[in-house]
Amino acid sequence: MILATVTLWVGNGSWGYHDRKLIKAIKVQYKDGMERFYGNKEGDDNTPHSFKFDTDERVKSMSIWSGDRVDRIRWQTNHNRTFDQGGQDYSCGRGGNH
């Protein structure tokens, strides 16, 4: 299956995660028209972020920040484009309240 568009909804978490942004939902659309959706995009603070793939574009590398929940997703494509959405980037340390 060839990717067409990926949309992430980012918003504040609930309960013990209310102080940080999390990936709340994801929708993956394929070039053949098939779609997959996971999560809950409802909520006043949930913001959609979409990435539309070019015709021959593919994900070259991907990083996912997570603990109990997914905080952030970043990928780079073979066209040298980057998609980077979600909560804080903890590349150089630990996340949460540590």
Helix/strand layout:
Elements: E1 3-12, E2 21-30, E3 35-39, E4 47-52, E5 59-66, E6 70-77, E7 82-86
Antiparallel strand pairs: 1-2, 1-4, 2-3, 5-6, 6-7
InterPro entries: Jacalin-like_lectin_dom, Jacalin-like_lectin_dom_sf
Protein name: Jacalin-type lectin domain-containing protein
Domain Jacalin-type lectin: 18-88
Could you write a compact summary of the structure shown?
With 98 residues, the chain is mainly beta.
Widest β-sheet, arrangement of strands: 3-2-1-4
Assign the CATH superfamily: Jacalin-like lectin domain
Oligomer classification? single chain
The N- to C-terminal Cα distance equals: 40 Å
Number of strands: 7
Note poorly predicted spans: none
| Biggest pleated-sheet summary | 4 strands, antiparallel
Return Rg in Å.
14 Å
The number of helices is: 0
CATH class: Mainly Beta
Shape descriptor: globular
Write the H/E string, N to C: EEEEEEE
Q: What is the total number of structural domains?
A: 1
For this structure, the CATH topology is Vitelline Membrane Outer Layer Protein I, subunit A
**Helix-residue proportion:** under 10%
CATH architecture term: Aligned Prism
SSE class = mainly beta
